[in-house]
Amino acid sequence: SMKTAALLVCLVGSALAIPKAGFVTLFLTNPPFPILLLDACRNFHCKRGKVCHVDEQEQPRCICQDPAACPSTKDYEHVCGTDNKTYEGLCQLFGTKCQLDGTKMGRQLHLDYMGSCKFIPHCTDYEVDQFPLRMRDWLKNILMQYYERDVDTSGFLTEKQRNKVKKIYENEKRLSAGDHPVELLLYDFEKNYHMYVYPVHWQFYQLDQHPVDRVLSHSELAPLRASLVPMEHCITRFFQECDGDQDKRVSLKEWCHCFGIKREDIDENLLF
Ligand SMILES: *[C@@H]1O[C@H](CO)[C@@H](O)[C@H](O)[C@H]1NC(C)=O
């Protein structure tokens, strides 16, 4: 029947969010209840770390995700929290954070980086100075790689992005990818400054997705710490220094400033 079909759809859609044992009990002992329960929560959005639950008044409410009820994960889904504890996945981390809500520990717990916690060497002053040079170069090279791959199988870049990247890619003065000495990177930034403006904006746009609000939060910056970035152990220090007004968020202006982009070249219209 229609009702059964609707219930099945709900069941599938909510299977991850609702602890299985509780659901089965409700279902067996009180058949009409789960239909209400599932319907009230349907299309009801809860923020990260919370799941929808129907209260006694049959109103949907967001309650903390029980970390123990999170779906099981693979090793590569492990994440390291800012408490330097390894969580099995994002669900477990944000569920834990929610349960600590209102406490200092809860406020301080964020995603630090993808992967299990590991030893991260101290970042020296010398390295932190080099960081923007290396990262700028790395960003440009990543875009070049995406562009090359897109020639055969499109998908990495949108049409608009491809047009921007094409100009850089086809510029014969472009410094090729490689492990260059700092002096050369500095020289190239002076000489070919314009080639770096778009990649810096592009990376900001890639990270500014949860939510799209023109500032990068701690958790939006976290993916950068995934193993791809050279000198990743300097990221934390670098972004602390980037965050000029110390509001724990990096605005587009702060981001561009960190990478040496001139004020007049900071352009929200490049965020696509
Ligand atoms: C964080 O945890 C890892 C792995 O358990 C350890 O090697 C590292 O020393 C810890 N870092 C800090 C700052 O305590």
Automatic annotation (TrEMBL):
<dbReference type="GO" id="GO:0005615">
    <property type="term" value="C:extracellular space"/>
</dbReference>
<dbReference type="GO" id="GO:0005509">
    <property type="term" value="F:calcium ion binding"/>
</dbReference>
<dbReference type="InterPro" id="IPR002350">
    <property type="entry name" value="Kazal_dom"/>
</dbReference>
<dbReference type="GO" id="GO:0005518">
    <property type="term" value="F:collagen binding"/>
</dbReference>
<dbReference type="InterPro" id="IPR036058">
    <property type="entry name" value="Kazal_dom_sf"/>
</dbReference>
<keyword id="KW-0325">Glycoprotein</keyword>
<keyword id="KW-0732">Signal</keyword>
<keyword id="KW-0964">Secreted</keyword>
<comment type="similarity">
    <text>Belongs to the SPARC family.</text>
</comment>
<dbReference type="Pfam" id="PF10591">
    <property type="entry name" value="SPARC_Ca_bdg"/>
</dbReference>
<feature type="signal peptide">
    <location>
        <begin position="1"/>
        <end position="17"/>
    </location>
</feature>
<dbReference type="InterPro" id="IPR018247">
    <property type="entry name" value="EF_Hand_1_Ca_BS"/>
</dbReference>
<dbReference type="InterPro" id="IPR015369">
    <property type="entry name" value="Follistatin/Osteonectin_EGF"/>
</dbReference>
<dbReference type="GO" id="GO:0050840">
    <property type="term" value="F:extracellular matrix binding"/>
</dbReference>
<dbReference type="InterPro" id="IPR019577">
    <property type="entry name" value="SPARC/Testican_Ca-bd-dom"/>
</dbReference>
<feature type="domain" description="Kazal-like">
    <location>
        <begin position="63"/>
        <end position="119"/>
    </location>
</feature>
<keyword id="KW-0272">Extracellular matrix</keyword>
<keyword id="KW-0479">Metal-binding</keyword>
<dbReference type="InterPro" id="IPR003645">
    <property type="entry name" value="Fol_N"/>
</dbReference>
<protein>
    <submittedName>
        <fullName>SPARC like 1</fullName>
    </submittedName>
</protein>
<keyword id="KW-1015">Disulfide bond</keyword>
<dbReference type="InterPro" id="IPR011992">
    <property type="entry name" value="EF-hand-dom_pair"/>
</dbReference>
<dbReference type="Pfam" id="PF09289">
    <property type="entry name" value="FOLN"/>
</dbReference>
<dbReference type="InterPro" id="IPR001999">
    <property type="entry name" value="Osteonectin_CS"/>
</dbReference>
<dbReference type="Pfam" id="PF00050">
    <property type="entry name" value="Kazal_1"/>
</dbReference>
<keyword id="KW-0106">Calcium</keyword>
